[in-house]
Amino acid sequence: MDASLGPVFLLGLLFVAVIFVAKAIVVVPQQSAYVIERLGRYSATLEAGLHVIVPFIDRIAYKHILKEVPYDVAPQVCITRDNSQVKIDGILYYQVTEARLASYGTSNFEFAIEQLAKTTLRSEAGKRDLDKLLEERSAINQSVVAALDEASPGWGVKVLRYEIKDIVPPESVLKAMEKQITAEREKRALIAKSEGEKAQEINVAEGDRAAAIARSQGDKEAAINRAQGEAQSIMLVAKASAESIRMIASAIGAEGGERAVALKVAEQYVAAFGNIAKQGNTVVVPANFGDLASLITGALAIVPKKL
User: Fold this and answer.
1) DSSP for 195-215?
2) Of the residues 16, 26, 148, 192, which has the maximum number of CB atoms within 10 A of its CB?
């Protein structure tokens, strides 16, 4: 071999060695798995870390992410049991649990999961009326997950959950639902108004009843107070009259009492006659002035001369 070709050969050999080493060393990231094929056949599954393979004999056939992956399911039209067409879209979350099955179990496990989810969703929608379809989202989600769990283990994939994002009924159904909601709201408003008026009337009636009771109680207490006052007044007048009578009787029994009584009677007679004569525009004159004079003279005759 020519001596000038030696360094070139060594450089070429070194370059091949570097390429060989670079092909032999494989670094797998965290939460990832690489499927290795040797001469076209499955050889091993490399987990996270540093690995060495045989270059040009072993190759990385598949790379899988072991994290939870969200997958958007395209919207589709479903027919409910009452023949209403609705557009439903959702999202599912899956995780690769077995890299070998995910590589060789199906040609495209994401496509398989999506198609199975759509099929199950159409089946569940056909079992329910539109109203139930809108109410039972949780039950539908569980049914889709159960169907996917039954098929996905052979694909090396675990479907964690499925969520319906939106259910869009036809425009005519939306308008009918809007009218129904408006009618229901008006009904609740009328019921609330009537209940408020009923409560108001009850409160007013209870207030009137309480006021009437209070007034009657007040009238009762006022009547009792008036009666007690009148009774006390009568008692006081009676006591005063009795005392006056006792004093008069005592005065009559005293010396000169009879003459004082006669004089008092005469004065009262004259005063009474004067009051009768002054009433109205007519002057009343006694028919016998002699009788009046004799009465007065008789009353004065018994008065002692000393008085």
Assistant:
1) HHHHHHHHHHHHHHHHHHHHH
2) 148
Residues 92 and 69: beta-carbon distance below 8 Å = no
Structure pTM? 0.53
The pLDDT tens digits for 257-269 are 666 666 666 666 6
How many Cβ atoms are within 10 Å of 67's Cβ, its own excluded?
Answer: 10
Instruction: Indicate the Cα dihedral angle 96, 97, 102, 104, nearest 10°.
Output: 170
In angstroms, the CA 168 to CA 89 distance is 9
Letter string b/e over residues 210-224, b meaning 16 or more CB atoms within 10 A of that residue's CB:
eeeeeeeeeeeeeee
Nearest to 86 by CA among 148, 164, 184, 147: 164
Beta carbons of 297 and 266 less than 8 angstroms apart: no
**Cβ 306 vs Cβ 255: under 8 Å:** no
Give 218-233 as a DSSP string: HHHHHHHHHHHHHHHH
- pLDDT tens string 195-234: 888 888 888 888 888 888 888 888 888 888 888 888 888 8
